[in-house]
Inverse folding.
DNA sequence: GGAAATATGGAATTTTTATTCCATTGGTCG
DNA sequence: CGACCAATGGAATAAAAATTCCATATTTCC
């Protein structure tokens, strides 16, 4: 792993020993890692409070790593900053350099940044077009459902699997139609009146998803569709259609808005069901 | 001239009065101007020495401009830095603000909006902390891998399943360790030198994921870990660790940043492999 | 050139910050 | 279950830093 400066080096050393550190010192380690860019400005006390420990614990931490005390350790952060800030001159300068540094051919960093940017725009758009009426309707529908089925294939399957996981923390009975063993039909077949189906699909629509939607509708189950427009084939059989338009970059579709919406849906439902919030996050002793 | 921040404003005020300042104070003014980016780190004494004056002169300087002393003046510089380094307060802060803004009884809309906001902040943070070196290393590693294994459980499983889907569009051979039939071990067992494992896990870490990571490492396969910090158990066996800190709202963890990063990773890889971008999105006549 | 006003720097003081010491707690292992 | 060791946090102490005070130097202006 490439290590550029003293701070990274130090943090690496911390990471090494991390496991063998007492609880409080681990907390401090996490805090330092999190705030590496402003440690140089903080007093022992700030760090202590930030890490929920006594100042003396912070000093002990520094000493554990061979410094005489907090001050000496802090100097590492301070010097590293100075090294960066001073030689390359003003902020303006640095900016300009970053810009001029980019080569002709796109590099990974640029691709990544652009992609992330696209996702951000996607989320902005999601808030903007948010439709409270439909959203509430979706929550209502889930709240009343006896059993909840979820279907999505290919690109959207990840979303379905997440929803199934999340709903697993509620009292609802949940069925993920995952098509294992080619059994989409068999899996959806037990759906009936009083149940709900969440179907997620974007063009070109997955036929398995369409099939399930149609069946659910026939059986008088409620259908929540998550899709791109009111005009697609999902709309026909859906009771509620939540619209998401995903951003794309490099001809590649994001997934962030969809998953964000689904999570929001779950959180709203959980709140409705008066779940303790924590149960939504995790229950057991291992989670992910 | 556009004056953006408090430091600029202050320096302007100094420039105004400059002519009427006594010799030593002029020297201090020059020094401040020259070193505005590191004043926040300096002691009165440093400034005094740098300006060839007595420390008390520095205090007088500050007082001349209406501050109670050096400390108060220095705070201007410090705060300005912080504002830049952590736009509108650290990520933690912003999250907290979004959460604390919620009124008594939440309705669905508010919940959804807050949650989406939290996700947006999460993405902002993702760009900010993006580490090009590690990201590139991850892409390199995938490019060179003969076979790619992917593992994640519970909350993160959705991500793994998505990556598996995406990588399925490349020439790489891809194995999703999904634990079907309780066969995590059996599924990872065939990993070997020249292969790569992508492991995604957040606290409290899934033991299956840890197991796979350890095994992969033993077998001399390369490991890309996607996790929260360099300090977790995944770091030990990882060749590259990509850090993602997910936002949370209502004690509920988002997933957007992680998935966004994974997609970015895939896009970058696809670009590297000179895939036609479209193949990354979909191939056949039904997709999702 | 000398009185007044201002500036300067040494040293004392105050304030803030860091560190050490030690009693208590809590966990571990025989 | 009790003895031991590590960890923790309160309080005292030490160190560092900032500020004030004041005696002295320098400039200004008559």
């Amino acid at each position: 792993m490439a290590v550029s400066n003293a701070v990274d080096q130090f943090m690496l050393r911390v990471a090494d020993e991390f496991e063998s550190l007492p609880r409080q010192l681990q907390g401090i380690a996490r805090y330092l890692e999190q705030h590496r860019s402003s440690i140089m400005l903080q007093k022992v006390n700030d760090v202590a409070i930030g890490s929920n420990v006594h100042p003396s614990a912070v000093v002990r931490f520094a000493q554990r790593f061979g410094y005489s005390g907090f001050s000496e350790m802090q100097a590492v952060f301070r010097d590293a900053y100075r090294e960066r800030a001073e030689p390359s001159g003003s902020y303006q300068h640095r900016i300009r350099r970053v810009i001029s540094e980019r080569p002709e051919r796109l590099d990974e960093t640029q691709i990544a940044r652009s992609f992330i940017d696209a996702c951000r725009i996607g989320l902005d758009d999601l808030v903007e077009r948010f439709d409270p009426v439909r959203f509430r309707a979706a929550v209502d529908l889930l709240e009343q459902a006896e059993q909840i089925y979820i279907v999505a294939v290919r690109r959207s399957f990840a979303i379905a699997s997440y929803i199934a996981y999340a709903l697993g923390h509620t009292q609802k009975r949940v069925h993920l139609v995952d098509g294992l063993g080619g059994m989409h039909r068999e899996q959806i077949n037990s759906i009936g009146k009083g149940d709900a189906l969440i179907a997620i699909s974007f063009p070109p629509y997955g036929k398995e998803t369409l099939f399930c939607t149609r069946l659910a509708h026939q059986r008088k189950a409620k259908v929540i569709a998550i899709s791109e427009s009111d005009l697609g084939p999902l709309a026909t059989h859906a009771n509620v259609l939540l619209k998401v338009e995903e951003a794309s970059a490099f001809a590649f579709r994001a997934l962030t808005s969809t998953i964000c919406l689904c999570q929001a849906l779950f959180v709203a439902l959980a709140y409705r069901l008066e779940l303790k919030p924590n149960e939504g996050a995790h229950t057991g002793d291992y989670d992910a």
Observations:
- The longest strand of chain B covers residues 222-227.
